[in-house]
From TrEMBL:
Residues 320-424 form the UDP-glucose/GDP-mannose dehydrogenase C-terminal domain. This is UDP-glucose 6-dehydrogenase. Belongs to the UDP-glucose/GDP-mannose dehydrogenase family. Keywords: NAD, Oxidoreductase.
Length: 443
């Protein structure tokens, strides 16, 4: 099947690479010519396990190519996927300018029937806007061409994107057209062999399903963080509580890990956008607003703990920071808790010595050269001369730390763990003052 994908970011690249890998003929189009040139050379601009190998393999096999030539790309595929960004507008609603720009591009160049597949996360009603935009542009050209618009939201997680795309729990398609159903079945047939993972529904329900999924996951995180903060005040250990509630199959163990708040390019913006939509239809989104407010407060927890540990005076202190990415196995720092912490530390006059296995380059791109930031090449280098250690991301490599090295290297023996990586008793036994999230000892 010939497939065109607009946008070569996380979603577009993974979609393009995976669809080519199962034998489809794929062209990916992006407006960023440097990115396109690098990708045609097999260089992948994001860190996503397994992605580079699949892209190189399919470039060599001739099933995948990257271009900035929109006319050629529109001509190529029956399916025209839209996988461009939908960043938050000033009021929290999703900014649809990139999605609608692609819709206009498709309508400007199409010469025959196309299925426009919206994979970007977009508010309910966007397919209708895309439809109107394509119709208008076609009318300007005096062209009467048939087309369909469907919704196919993406549920992949950064860091496990290939696995999620290839073996995800479900593939949601919103459409009321048999022709689209048939085309989407053909597209996803290789992923749906053992049992039918395709869930067809109307377009509005599909658009809402994506927001509902992310809002549910964000709610689980804010819920456990709320209970963790309570546990801290009550002298209980959230890790026992988590195990205790997760064992109930109605609750389950997934996504109830306490921490320093959720980040990334999706949860914060999608919770905000859904809340915005709710306001627009006159339904005050009480739960969603609480989820967001709890998360913002949680991102301040590590700084608040540090402030207490140093009696409110962090000026001139050097803080070792392990973990810059918003979660492990990615170099993505969008809305990462590490960024909120660094901003507060800098405002308080402290220096940061940071280490992350993958996000060093991204951190450099975001902040550049600064006197109050050193990016260290090794985990333990970040500890040298530091007054305290803070952990923001649960990279596996941080779990295997020798506590005696920590004790020896840190100027004061303070460890603030935003991801509950260690057993409090063992780390305290090594002479360190250890503060985690919701584990009894409050600071
Ligand atoms: P991204 O910012 O990583 O990539 C977007 C790409 O689109 C960029 O390369 C940009 O240059 C390109 N682009 C912009 N305008 C274009 C145009 N007119 N034509 C062609 N290319 C254009 O975005 P992303 O993280 O891949 O997210 C894309 C969408 O998918 C968003 O709506 C997001 O919410 C959703 N989503 C993201 C994830 C995730 O984990 N990142 C998961 C599920 C859904």
């Amino acid at each position: 099947m010939r497939i065109t994908i607009f946008g070569s970011g996380y979603v577009g690249l993974v979609t393009g690479a995976c669809l080519a890998d199962v034998g489809h003929d794929v062209i990916c189009v992006d407006i960023d010519s440097d990115k396109v040139a690098a990708l045609n050379d097999g260089q992948v601009p994001i860190h996503e396990p397994g992605l580079e190998t699949i892209i190189r393999h399919n470039l060599e096999a001739g099933r995948l190519r990257f271009t900035t030539d929109a006319a050629r790309a529109v001509e190529f595929g029956l399916l025209q996927f839209i996988a461009v960004g939908t960043p938050p507008d000033e009021d929290g609603s999703a900014d649809l300018q990139y999605v609608l720009q692609v819709a206009r591009t498709i309508a400007t160049h199409m010469q025959e029937y196309k299925v426009i597949v919206d994979k970007s996360t977009v508010p309910v009603g966007t397919a209708e806007k895309v439809n109107a935009c394509v119709s208008e542009t076609l009318a300007e050209r005096d062209a009467t061409l048939a087309f369909d618009v469907c919704s196919n939201p993406e549920f992949l997680k950064e860091g496990a994107a290939i696995e999620d795309f290839s073996r995800g729990a479900r593939i949601v398609v919103g459409t009321d057209s048999d022709r689209v159903r048939q085309a989407m079945r053909e597209c996803y047939a290789p992923y749906s062999r053992l049992h039918d993972k395709l869930i067809f529904m109307d377009v509005r329900s599909a658009e809402l399903t994506k927001y509902a999924a992310n809002a549910m996951l964000a709610t689980k995180i804010s819920f456990i963080n709320e209970i963790a903060n309570l546990a801290e005040k009550l002298g209980a250990d959230i890790e026992h509580v988590r195990h205790g509630i997760g064992s109930d199959p109605r609750i389950g163990h997934h996504f109830i890990y306490p921490g320093c708040g959720y980040g990334g390019s999706c949860f914060p913006k999608d919770v905000q956008a859904l809340a915005r939509t709710a306001h627009e239809v006159g339904h005050p989104p009480q739960l969603l607003e609480a989820v967001e407010a709890i998360n913002l407060r949680q991102k301040d927890q590590l700084f608040a703990k540090l402030e207490s540990a140093f009696d409110g005076d962090l000026a001139g202190k050097t803080i070792a920071l392990w973990g810059l990415a918003f979660k492990p196995n990615t170099d993505d720092m969008r809305e990462a808790p590490s960024r909120a912490l660094m901003a507060s530390l800098w405002a308080a006059g402290a220096r940061v010595q940071a280490f992350d296995p993958e996000a060093q380059d991204e951190c450099w791109r975001l902040y550049g050269e600064r006197d109050d930031l050193s990016l260290c090449k090794r985990r333990d280098e970040a500890l040298e001369g530091a007054d305290a250690l803070v952990i923001c991301t649960e990279w596996k490599a941080f779990r295997t730390v020798d506590f005696s090295v920590l004790k020896k290297t840190l100027a004061s023996p303070i460890v603030i763990d935003g991801r509950n990586l260690f057993e409090p008793a063992s780390i305290k036994q090594a002479g360190l003052d250890y503060y985690a999230i919701g584990r009894g000892d409050s600071l």
